[in-house]
Amino acid sequence: LTQLAPEGQLVAEPGAGQVAWFGHAEENGVPVYVSVRLKIASGTILESETIVVRPTGLPLPFGDPKKLVHYDSFSEILPPERRKPRERMIAVADAYFSTLELNDGHVFAPLAHDCNRVENGVVTTSAAFTAGSNAEGCDAQFKLGIFKINKRIRDRRYPLIDEERGVILATVTFDHANEFDEYRLTNGKMMKTFLKWPNSISIMEIFKIVDGQIVDIEAMFDYVPYGMPAPFKGGAK
Questions:
Q1: Do 156 and 236 contact (CB within 8 A), yes or no?
Q2: pLDDT of residue 96 exceeding 90
């Protein structure tokens, strides 16, 4: 990386020695998105997990880094009555991935009515995004079954949980189905898939949870070889 943006989304769980940063940089003059998770103990880095998203031309969200805006909510401290314990936060985040897996219109995750999601610098819950042209917002998209292509969401881990701010970080791997060229949404409309080959994506994602509901989401992800094992094991699946 030749240049790292000074601004970024920083989250941490000091008691567990976990810290993560979401932002953008340049790689030999070309913009890239970066997410990094570190585990630190006694001033020594024990784990380092990084995703670098490059503009390869593959079907993947990739926004203009100059227009990237991070959600301020992730830094806001919640009053005690609006917080949830770490076990509930894990359950909420895991329900989100269970909703995305084989997405058929059933929503298992508690979502705020104005829940929004930015992925690789693109607000994918807005009408400007392909999925957003069918429905805007987390809940509406899930109820349409837009993400049926997600055959399996595995290796779910939640290494960083900040109860005070209602922030949880997840690292997961998506395996995509390539057995069909198009599929039917719950409203009867047919939707074509751009993913014509067996592929997986590695994701680092943070959730802001307030009153037990997901309010904001930021994610970075890129393709990895199909079926590639996650670098760190453990978690709900």
A1: yes
A2: yes
